[in-house]
Amino acid sequence: MVFLEEEYWKRFPLWKDVSKDEWFNWKWQVRNRFKTFEDVEKIVSLSEEEKKAFLKTSDIFHFGTTPYYFSLIQRFSKEDPVYRQIFPSLEEIEEEVQKDAYLDPFNEDIMSPVSGITHRYPDRVLFRATNFCSVYCRHCMRKRMFLEEERARTKEEYERMFDYIRSNKNIKEVLVSGGDPLTLPNKKIEYILKNLYQIEHIDIIRIGSRELVVNPFRFFDEELLELFDRYDKVWLVTHFNHPNEITNITKKAVKNILSTGTPVLNQTVLLKGINDNEKTIEKLMRDLLKVKIKPYYLFFCDPTKGVIHFRTDLKKGIEILEHLRGRVSGLGNPIYAADLEGGLGKVPLFPNYLLEETEEYYLLRNYENKTVKIKKKKGKGGGRGI
Ligand code: SF4
User: Fold this and answer.
1) Prior bond to 179 cis, omega within 30?
2) Where are the chain's structural domains?
3) Architecture of domain 96-349 in this structure
4) I need a labelling partner for 264 at 20 to 30 A (CA). Which of 17, 310, 333, 363 fits?
5) Mean per-residue pLDDT for 219-227?
6) Measured in angstroms, how far is the CA atom of residue 270 from the centroid of ligand 1?
7) What is the mean pLDDT of residues 197-204?
8) Residue tagged active-site, from 120, 251, 327, 376
9) Is 137 a catalytic residue?
């Protein structure tokens, strides 16, 4: 976890006159987003080569970051996990690198009965509230949104989305995502939550947002916290990928969220050059628990156009799980999963702990490779073996 001192941002000449009230205001963070190369140059001067890559790539896939997230960069180089998640690189647009990737690998736009809704599993739908994000992550699985103009949905679109959910009683859970739905104004969030909350067959409203990572001040906004409290079907799923993203400000923000009774879970994407090693993921899981976020998923990186260069070997995630088991408490062990192309759903992947099955027993191993046989039950009763 990173400790940010009081008024730490004043170390940067650009922000030396920014008051605490401004820096801690989520709207100030969104208003003062960096969107261009000129914005970046106000803080750091990049080499000609880096400049060329930035301009060429961001012309296709947008660039954007909040000042807060930018301030978490510790070194202005590709080795830095925050830098790498926001700075455009040429690999994103190199055809040879991206040749096995797709703009919409999971057919979200095809499995869409109504614009803005993806219905893949019987009991859940994806509800894409906006295509706007305060930070454009280079590894975003919906990177195709970066190609479009930023916009929120119209009222008519939202109404059609609510109607679809109302008329499908099998739907129990709505994943409100985007873009980032918590970049919307409170009035719009209230409108969405109220409509979903009033649908009796909806048990869970799961909000997928990166604001806790890139603009934690969003959760210092009493009005938003009051909405979480009132519409108490809300769960928040966030997206931390590296321990450098977790700060003392994150901790305060999580405390505010938890005070509304809203659980906070995290999804991490396994990203080459950012977090694809045992030590980093172990620290990330520990730091998430320290601020009371439950690690939920670790995802194999998706085959998305502009993203696939971040992909590791599939087995890397299994090796990482093998490392975590026995070292970090069960609370800090996420589910490792790969999303299958074509919208076929997520597949959980585990190290193999069941080594053998005979007519008599199962042979299990633990994290230290010590083995134990468990006798099979025969008829009524049965028993546990050695
Ligand atoms: S905040 Fe989420 S939706 Fe937005 S760019 Fe990042 S990963 Fe994609």
Assistant:
1) yes
2) 8-93, 96-349, 352-386
3) Alpha-Beta Barrel (3.20)
4) 310
5) 98
6) 15
7) 98
8) 120
9) yes
